[in-house]
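Q: Please design a sequence for this.
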């Protein structure tokens, strides 16, 4: 990892954000949903579940739940159930990470195009952006389902940079977990890690993989 004193936003022509755990403080909510959802079937959540499913496409996670936990509902129904469980929180209660709004406003004023590259479902992404009135900060929203590959495959970041019309080497990625950092690096982009409490056990690996690491977005604003 490089020293943050080397960081300069002027080096980049576009910024691409992961969503959950990076731009918004939602990882605890998803852990709670896993407990509630599997509890409907009398299943306890394995301790390593989040580590296993991190970076997967939304539909891939539904397939995983069917195969591993023996849930007989269709992939579509599983996904729709999760969306229903999460929608109200995304529309009303999930906060942005500290400094995120200010940083997005700064990038918008600098006319630096921004995108989102997320494993989440498009409907929930749009809900949280509307809730915080930041939809117009993003020129491209790409999901891993759009890219037909979950992280650490770099496809979602390559697709996002293509939609932004900016070469990968001129893009900066913000991520919170190792598979996301690997996806950004695999696409040929610099990656700044956001230290999220829910990935604390991975901090050493995160700092080894990322170009920079921060606790909130305020240091990125000159």
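A: Design:
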């Amino acid at each position: 990892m490089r020293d943050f004193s080397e960081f300069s936003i002027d080096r980049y022509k576009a910024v691409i954000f992961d969503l959950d755990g990076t731009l918004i403080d939602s990882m605890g909510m998803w852990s709670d949903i896993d407990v509630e959802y599997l509890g409907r079937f009398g299943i306890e959540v394995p301790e390593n579940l989040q580590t296993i499913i991190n970076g997967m496409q939304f539909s891939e996670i539904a397939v995983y739940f069917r195969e591993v936990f023996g849930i007989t509902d269709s992939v579509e129904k599983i996904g729709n159930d999760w969306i229903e469980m999460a929608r109200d929180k995304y529309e009303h209660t999930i906060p942005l990470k500290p400094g995120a709004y200010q940083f997005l406003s700064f990038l918008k004023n600098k006319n630096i195009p921004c995108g989102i590259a997320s494993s989440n479902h498009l409907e929930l992404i749009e809900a949280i952006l509307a809730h915080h009135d930041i939809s117009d900060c993003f020129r491209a929203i790409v999901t891993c389902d759009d890219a037909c590959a979950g992280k650490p495959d770099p496809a979602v970041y390559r697709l996002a940079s293509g939609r932004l019309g900016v070469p990968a080497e001129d893009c900066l990625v913000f991520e919170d977990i190792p598979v996301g950092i690997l996806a950004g690096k695999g696409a040929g982009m610099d990656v700044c890690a956001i230290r999220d409490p829910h990935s604390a056990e991975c901090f050493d690996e995160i700092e080894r993989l990322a170009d920079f690491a921060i606790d909130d977005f305020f240091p990125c604003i000159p």
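Q: Thanks. Anything notable?
A: The longest strand covers residues 114-118. The radius of gyration is 17 Å.
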